[in-house]
Amino acid sequence: MNNKEFLAALGAKTGYNAKQTAQMVMDTIRVITDELTEENAVGITGFGTFEVKKKLERVLVNPSTKQRMLVPPKMVVNFKPNTGMKDKVNGK
To answer: Which of 28, 27, 6 lies closest to 18 in space, CA to CA?
Structure first.
């Protein structure tokens, strides 16, 4: 399902037009992004939890040249699906 199909399906379920639906989705994503930028977890009931985790600094070795490289630490977004969602996807 691409973005256009997603917005059409969501609009059909909510009764909003395409422009209103797209704006609601963008506003939702903006709020989630703002919270994650502040390193706050965002939990959505029945869906799952988005959280920011810090990946530690590590050393990588290039297998062909055997050169060691230092990879700096970084922040990554992690998603943990709700148990109910996992069960639905797995057909339980």
So the answer is: 6
For residue 45, the 8-state DSSP code is: T
Residue 67 domain boundaries? 41-92
Whether 91 and 48 map to the same domain: the answer is: yes
Burial of residue 21 (CB within 10 Å: 0-12, 13-18, 19+) is buried
Residues 5 and 33 in one domain: yes
At 36-65, the pLDDT tens digits run 999 999 999 989 999 999 999 999 999 999
Cα Dmax for the chain: 59
Burial 33-43 (b: 16+ CB within 10 A, else e): eeebeeeeebe
Question: What stretch of H or E contains 85?
Answer: helix 83-89
Name the pTM for this structure: 0.76
Same domain, 73 and 49: yes
